[in-house]
Design brief:
Keywords: Membrane, Transmembrane, Transmembrane helix
Order of helices and strands: EEHHHHHHHHHHH
Mean pLDDT: 77
Low-confidence stretches: 1-19, 154-158
Shape: elongated
Strand content: under 5%
Distance between the termini: 39 Å
Length: 276
């Protein structure tokens, strides 16, 4: 599978040491991955009526194992989030590539498990997965160019601003700078954003700083300066990811610890509980 390889230029003071390569997935590869996933799922649904009984029982050894492996692969986005937010990954793009490829394979495995018994609360998990694919695809393929243009222009910053609003923004920046001296003295206010490390080490200071940052963004009209899809897609994608994780963990806990409740009037046949 072809990957784009980009390397950051070495700084003037470090001309003998190249920056680490930043692998990336091209839009063409992403389109092929999504198209391949859709074709694979349609092909499976066409073949499903001719498959043995085990392929029609979501708790069978084959399909439950597929669901477990697929679920673990679908946790890769959270590894990407942790690596990016904690700074533990020197090249977060590598985790992004793993996130996309592992998630695509994980969706297929979870989907064939879900298609065996397409009903009940697990439908919410599938619904979240579909929306995650749609929002992620739109954000990367459709909105990446407009977002790059937005970062390069910042035209909203040149709009006339009332004097009282300017003073309120200046006061927020002063408060942020003061908080930053206690939260992360080496950071610059204009470039700083709260990470997981800050939330763990100083949650109250992090919360106070984040509130000021959100207030500043509202006063400066950052989201209002771009189309609604561009302004909100990432937040929707993140919320869907966390909703999926909560639903997945809930489903796993219920089928493991309360199988009788999940089965209702039916048979508890999950193989890990001694079923057939």
């Amino acid at each position: 599978m072809p990957l784009k390889e980009t390397a950051l230029p070495a700084s003037a003071g470090d001309s003998h040491q190249l920056a680490p390569e930043r692998p990336d997935l091209s839009d063409r590869v992403l389109i092929r991955l999504v198209a391949g996933l859709c074709i694979g799922l349609v092909a499976y649904l066409l073949l499903k009526p001719f498959l043995p009984e085990a392929w029609h029982r979501p708790g069978s050894p084959m399909l439950q194992s597929a669901a477990i492996v697929g679920s673990l692969m679908l946790l890769s986005p959270f590894a990407f989030w942790l690596g990016k937010r904690t700074g533990l990954s020197a090249v977060p793009n590598r985790l992004y590539v793993i996130h996309v490829i592992a998630s695509t394979a994980g969706i297929f495995l979870v989907a064939i498990h879900a298609f065996a018994g397409f009903r009940g609360p697990p439908l919410f998990i599938v619904f979240c997965l579909v929306l995650l694919v749609v929002t992620g695809f739109i954000g990367r393929v459709r909105l990446s160019a407009p977002m790059a243009a937005t970062f390069g222009s910042k035209s909203a910053a040149f709009r006339p601003v009332p004097a009282h609003l300017k003073e309120e923004i200046r006061d927020i920046i002063r408060q942020k700078a003061s908080l930053l001296q206690r939260l992360d003295p080496q950071a610059q206010e204009a470039l700083f954003s709260v990470t997981l490390h800050h939330w763990i080490r100083a949650p109250r200071l992090s919360l106070a700083y984040q509130r000021l940052a959100l207030k500043e963004a509202r006063l400066t009209g950052q989201r209002a300066s771009v189309p609604p899809v561009q302004a909100w897609w990432r937040l929707l994608h993140i919320l869907l990811a966390w909703a999926f994780l909560i639903a997945l963990l809930t489903h796993a806990a219920l089928v493991t610890f309360l199988p009788g409740y999940v089965a209702g009037d039916g048979e508890v046949y999950w193989w890990h509980l001694g079923g057939t």
